[in-house]
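#lab-general

N.A. 3:47 PM
ok so I finally got the sequence cleaned up, no stray characters, all 488 residues accounted for. can someone with queue access submit it? mine expired

B.Y. 3:52 PM
send it over

N.A. 3:53 PM
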Amino acid sequence: MNIPEYILQILETITAAGFSGELVGGCVRDLLMEKQPQDWDLTTNARPEQILALFAGAKYENDFGTVLIPCRNSKGEVLAVAEVTTYRSEKGYADCRHPDEVKFEEQLDKDLERRDFTVNAMALKLDADGDYSWSQKKFSLVDLFGGVKDIRKKVIRAVGEPADRFKEDALRMMRAIRFSSQLGFSLEPKTQRGIVKLAGSLKFVAKERVRDELVKILSSDRPAQGIMALHEAKILQYIIPELEQGVGVRQNHHHIYQVFKHNVLSLQHCPSAEWQVRFASLLHDVAKPKTRRLIDGQVTFYNHEYVGAKMVDRIMTRLKFKNEDRERVVNLVRNHMFYYNVGEVTAASVRRLISKVGRDNLQDLIHLRVADRLGSGTPKGMPYKLRHLQYMMEKVQHDPVSVKMLALNGHDLMAELSLLPGPKIGAILDVLLGEVLEDPVRNERAYLLERAQALQLENLEDLRTQARLLIEEKRDDEDHDMQKRFKV
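B.Y. 4:20 PM
back already:
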């Protein structure tokens, strides 16, 4: 792990000017956990105007002491923008987010006291005699609240009194759970009790902020753990209450789990790393409680995929998701019940499925089906018929041997050779394709026009028959390769 040179230079510039300067927050936690930080936060006792005087191009456009410093390479190109914040304490949080009063401080401990969790409330300062070393520089650790101990114990613990931290910013309750799912940590019991106690205050947080934390949970290595933690901490009901309606709802004999548990397990088993597909896995059966009916002694959920698509649309609209993300998840939920049995489904029906769900969403749909199966307790996520569907999808969506691959088309032949529309054009293109299949280097416009000019004088039916045989042979070879790849 390396600390970028531009970050070291900022620290050295600040300390050389007689001020204190430290790395702080998540980057310190990541360094101690031997993870490469993605963001670098610095803090100092220098006031914003003093920081501005030290760095050309720096900007200060807020009331919280954070100065933005552009970091440039030798060519003057901006590599990153570093945030350097003056030590501060905060008081009063009427809106459950912003402090009513910000006071700049002289001592680092005052700044660390205001931070959310112990693992984020540590600082590293340049120190020639320090116990820690990165990028050939020595650092000493400032850990006032037991952050190192909590990293070793793998717990997320609020700094000081949990209720005080969550009253300052209610989103910290979601952040606690997000960190637990990202890091694989558990919530310290007192911290969890504080979340349960103040869970209702999350409704005062802007939906965009809630959405962003939810996406980070879904994108983590343990998304299902995060969703369950939201549920157990009584927060999920303020984010996606529709999902919790599945708690205790029994399904039919095809499912061994109740609806809520099935949805969470589907998320856990989703093979896709994309949060949109994971979200669809979590919500694919969200409408089952609304559509549950008992008919002739059998539990049914007719049309739950269509009702669910409408519910997901409302959920994602409420949480201010981007339109393209919302449409993608809704599309997957609406089509997750697609029918496919080997021998019953034709290439034409597969093409209709592609037209219905979109070519770009095909693999997502397969991932969703695998998640649904494994989340139902089925031991095999990718049975033969799903592998066969993948094979058929690739077979029909990509025509591996087509005149479309040629460097010219029928319009070119009519324009360059003065040919009239008719079967002769198709015959010439077939012959050219046969030659290109034998030697792809021939697929150049000038060569193909020259060959076409000669071919229009020959007996094209004979040549066309030979070309078709070659094309069919090539198609058979590629089809055989696809069958082996998908094991069908």
